[in-house]
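This section describes the prediction task in plain terms. A model, or a person checking by hand, is given the sequence of a single protein chain and must write out its three-dimensional structure as a string of tokens. No templates, partner chains or ligands are provided. The sample shown here is typical of the held-out split.
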Amino acid sequence: MLPAFFIRSRGLGKLYARLFTPLLEEWGLTQTEADILLFLANNPGYDTARDMAEKRHLAKSHISAGIEALAGRGLLERSWQEGNRKTIHLRLTAAADPIVEEGRALQRRYGELLFRGFTQEEICRLSRWLDRVTENVDAALEEE
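The expected answer:
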């Protein structure tokens, strides 16, 4: 029998979305656009649309549309490395700083809500177990 966590996992997304709604409305962003900004801020060294698609399992079409919108608003810049005009690298601009700061605060709040009543040791143990579950899911999806 599966733990209730896996059956009710949609609730995780609903809670995250509920926490982010005020930020999205304040800055006129979509959830995907906020996810792009926070991914770039929280994952140094991963700065391409491909990285986001692989690490966050976001749809490439949504990522592309989000990048276009964010670049158009001056929140991120695109660049190419010398000798490679195929891969576009993304960099946040200073204009994104207040959004990232607020988004990170919401992510911390989300974590606080999820792990209320847990010791640090329990959080670490659970993280390791869930990482193993995630690896199993990724492997199963690759097999199909």
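For orientation: The mean pLDDT is 92.
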